[in-house]
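Q: Hi! First time doing this. I have a protein sequence and I read that you can turn it into a structure. Is that right? Here it is:
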Amino acid sequence: MSQQLRVRPVSLGERVVLAAQLLMLATVLIGSFGVLLTAALRVDDLPALLSPGVERLGDPKDSLPPVGPDSAWNPLLWAFELSRVVAMFVHPLAAMALLLGLVSLVRTRLIGDRPTFRWLAIGTALWCATAVLSLTPYGMQLHHWLLD
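A: Yes, that's right. Below is the predicted 3D structure, encoded as structure tokens:
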């Protein structure tokens, strides 16, 4: 009697795309909403979360880092500043993540790697929601505030 081994198909390239999607999404969210929350807490104006602007929140650089001294040795300063810089490029990042996600979804479906397909669908849907949010008036207002 011979045993038949089932080898689960694995799509390495698509898993790399998934990891890049989720890493960049986390970075964009920290760089935009993390900085926004920090600025709103600094000026003690939580309703400003719904209407970000320089007149209510001040310069976004003034609210960083959220904790600790404002020196080059503070790791939170580096994390938030680099995330803020990445969040400034949300439009090209969203286009790239959506394009790579859709191509990877097709390839993963053809290969038959179902768990990766599900996670790629979630990651691509989250980037689609991020792209739509960034094109709304609120998203544009937040983007202009971050660019200041």
